[in-house]
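As agreed, record copied across for absentees:
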Amino acid sequence: MGLSVENQPPTLVVMGVSGVGKTTVARLLAERLGLPYAEADDFHPPANIAKMAAGIPLDDEDRQPWLLALADWLGGRVAAGTGGVVACSALKRRYRDTLRSQAPATRFLHLTGDQALIRSRLAERSGHFMPASLLDSQYAALEPLQADEPGLELDVAQGPSDLADHAARLLIPHHPRPVNGDSA
């Protein structure tokens, strides 16, 4: 007999617009909870990366195979009993529904912040295919978590370590693994 949903290692998606720190916070959260980590950008097909690098926003048709691959990864973590953390924009409700299709108990951490702060972070970032010029399109597409979606919203004015600690305590209050060095 399998573990109940409450006793399974969690599946989490750290979401938000480009530049909020999804990757940094998701890696820290995965580390604190002892969970596998995946970066959604690694699941994009080359055509999507080329389109974004050219400053062209992706449409829903572009995103569908990408979201299904991420859903498969999350579902695989549930099937393996490991849980996992993904850094993914997950800007729209229907995208989050797709992500939960293979892992229904997935919870979301929506990182938010002042647009001027996020824009300045993007301007300082190098080596990423997502140009700052697409930030406005991401904010236009963003649908914040709705009341029936499991998760929470945190402002990135806090540092990444504080965000990961706060998220671990609020999203996974009874997780059996150590959180931030605690013994259990």
